[in-house]
Amino acid sequence: MNIGILYIATGRYITFWEDFFKSAEKYFITSSTKYYFVFTDTQTPVLGEDTGRVTRIHQEKLGWPYDTLMRFDIFLKAEKELEQMDYIFFFNANMKFIETVDTSFLPIDKNLLGVKHPGFYMKKRHSFTYDTNPSSLACMKPDEGEYYFMGGLNGGKARHYLQLIHTLAERVKKDIDNNVIALWHDESHLNRYLFDHREDVLVHPEGYGVPEGDRRIPNAKIIIQDKNHYRFGGHKWLRGLSDTKITKTEWQIENFKIRSKNIVKQIISFFRRK
Prior knowledge:
Helices cover about 30% and strands about 20% of the residues. It is an alpha/beta fold. The chain folds into 2 domains: about 1-225, Spore Coat Polysaccharide Biosynthesis Protein SpsA, Chain A (Alpha-Beta Complex); about 230-270, no CATH class. The strands form 2 sheets. A 7-stranded mixed sheet has the order 3-2-1-4-7-6-8. A 3-stranded mixed sheet has the order 5-10-9. Strand 1 (about 1-10), helix 1 and strand 2 form a beta-alpha-beta unit. Helix 5 (about 160-175) packs across helix 6. It holds the Pfam family Glyco_transf_6. This is Glycosyl transferase family 6.
């Protein structure tokens, strides 16, 4: 079984590649043959190229929000190679496997796969941030939608996922031609598509995309590493907004502020329910 893995790492996001590659090799469906397609502007070989299963494909940094909005169009650069796969999956750059993910992950009886967004863990439909702009092809009506899927992990059987890629690449272009950008970019378009094909989607729980340090969500198998962590330089450094990496002390102060705000929100939410 051949599995194609799509991975975008333009600019300094290539920093995450080693963690992702090593963890995927160790934990992700080890009975399969995995082929990695790394879309990056780095000029130097990346870890794993010597295996013959890692292909580095040149991709310039497009800037925000196009680095994420145009990802479906970017994937088409590898279409011929992807046609040879049995399954194709896209993973965000800062994801890391921490537990074994076996063949039960695969949409064997379905054709597509989506993962519930961890930001909406235990939340109701009314809180989901679907695009509601009728001018966008990603628009969701008030009575539509059962799950809110994260944009950072999705996939399916090759033929069906390639159809998703083609369709969403075209929809994004049409939106842009009409001077429209979906609320959450590629994620908004993905949610529209998966809802339209809901009978054919294997829905995975939030444990396949748990933010680093989030202890609310059980059975974490894949974590989303903290972009603002000092070990990665911090979010501003990663996005090229600063040439100075965040220090450990700065990260600790910022992390304390965030946790304090979250605690206050939880307390307020608790008393509102009383």
